[in-house]
Amino acid sequence: MPARDVFHDAVKRGLITDGWEITHDPLPVSFELGDMYIDLGAEKLLAAQRGEVKIAVEIKSFVRTSAISEFHTALGQFINYRLALSEIEPERILYLAIPIDAYSSFFTIRLVQNVIRIHQLKLIVYNPETEEIVEWIE
Q1: Is 1 within 8 Å of 55 (Cβ atoms)?
Q2: Nearest residue to 96 via CA among 115, 114, 72, 78
């Protein structure tokens, strides 16, 4: 099993505070490439007409020197995980969780915004200090 991200617990507590029930920590996904582990699986009961929503969350810290290198890694994981989930658990929605500082600086760059749009990345922006979910970006 891979090592946990430095902000793993902060995101987990933020989701719990937001009303999500953590169902998997990590969420194992077996696929042709072998066993993969998405950081968290969670569920939430929404209004009666929508029913239960299931999500998977891949957490990234963006604390390394090269944000673009970390972004490339995160994007590759996201695409692989989303493909695997589409076949195994198609009802589960995949999100990439990123810290607010990285979102404010790196994720506002036009190239990154275009990649997000083209690859339809869903983001959770979190504050690692307050352990809060700041924004959900569909």
Answers
A1: no
A2: 78
Secondary structure (3-state) at 26: coil
pTM: 0.93
Segments of 27-127 assigned E as strands: 27-31, 34-38, 40-45, 52-59, 92-99, 123-127
Q: What is the pLDDT of residues 82-97, one digit of tens each?
A: 999 999 999 999 999 9
Phi first, then psi, for residue 122 (nearest 5°) are -105, 130
DSSP reduced 3-state for 63: coil
Q: How far apart are CA 53 and CA 15, in angstroms?
A: 13
